[in-house]
Design a protein that fits this description.
Blueprint (H helix, E strand, L loop, with lengths): L1 E5 L3 H12 L3 E5 L3 H11 L3 E2 L6 H6 L7 E4 L4 H15 L3 E5 L6 H6 L4 E3 L1 H12 L5 E7 L4 E7 L21 E7 L2 E4 L11 E7 L3 H8 L3
Parallel strand pairs: 1-2, 1-4, 2-3, 4-5, 5-6
Antiparallel strand pairs: 7-8, 8-11, 9-10, 9-11
Length: 219
């Protein structure tokens, strides 16, 4: 696979190193000349020492034959522009962008970036697993973020305690898939009664996530 990595910071450096070790063909574009030289000294002549947002340097890197572009600089705007140029000018099949500000993920998806990686959101998810909080825990995103798989931890203040599933007016497009009780996964049935301490794994949409949260956890 031919991969163009844009950005030679720590993420770009280690990503490139791992891809090379796995046998992939990789070219990096890094605009800091000194940093580009340092990386080239270690990894070889695979670095284009220029701005990865510009089409002429993407052409120099062979973007026209790339299978994947991964824009992993520390600047969301640069990552978005670099991926847009690669997709629109060179028809790269897959564009992956690092997103430092999680609130920018929706914008990236609207602008047809195939995949986003948010270190902030990943760390937040790990913290959420360790710290009890009264919110939905995001487990996964599908269909470019439009479909969410979430976990709801029910406590005694939840408005659904004591209710059966068939009586819940779930938001449009939402469903409860699995209930975890006493560390055992239980297939939910319409007559399942909800208890404090239950964890519900649910599927919902980004649009109706807040409504589902209000129903299961409360305000």
């Amino acid at each position: 696979m031919y991969v163009v990595v844009i950005g030679g910071g720590n993420v770009g450096y280690y990503l490139t190193k791992e891809l090379l070790a796995a046998g992939h063909e990789v070219v990096m574009i890094e605009k800091d000349a000194a940093r580009a030289r340092t990386i080239a000294d270690e990894l070889g002549s695979i670095v284009v020492p220029n701005d990865g947002c510009e089409g002429r340097y993407q052409a120099e890197a062979g973007m026209a034959r790339a299978d994947v572009v991964a824009a992993v600089t520390g600047d969301d705007e640069d990552n978005l522009v670099a991926c847009q140029v690669a997709k629109m000018k060179f028809n790269v099949p897959r564009a992956i962008a690092r997103v430092n500000n999680p609130t920018n993920e929706a914008l990236f998806r609207r602008l047809a970036i195939d995949d986003t990686v948010s270190p902030t959101r990943s760390i937040l998810a790990l913290i959420e697993h360790e710290i009890p909080i009264h919110d939905l825990l995001h487990l996964a995103e599908l269909e470019g973020g439009e479909v969410q798989i979430v976990e709801a931890q029910l406590d005694s203040s939840s408005p659904v305690i004591g209710k059966v599933l068939r009586d819940l007016e779930l938001p449009e497009g939402s469903s409860v898939a699995v209930l975890v009780r006493d560390e055992h996964a239980i297939i939910v049935r319409p007559d399942t009664t909800l208890r404090a301490g239950d964890k519900l794994l649910a599927v919902t949409s980004a649009e109706h996530e807040a409504e589902l949260r209000s129903l299961l956890i409360g305000e």
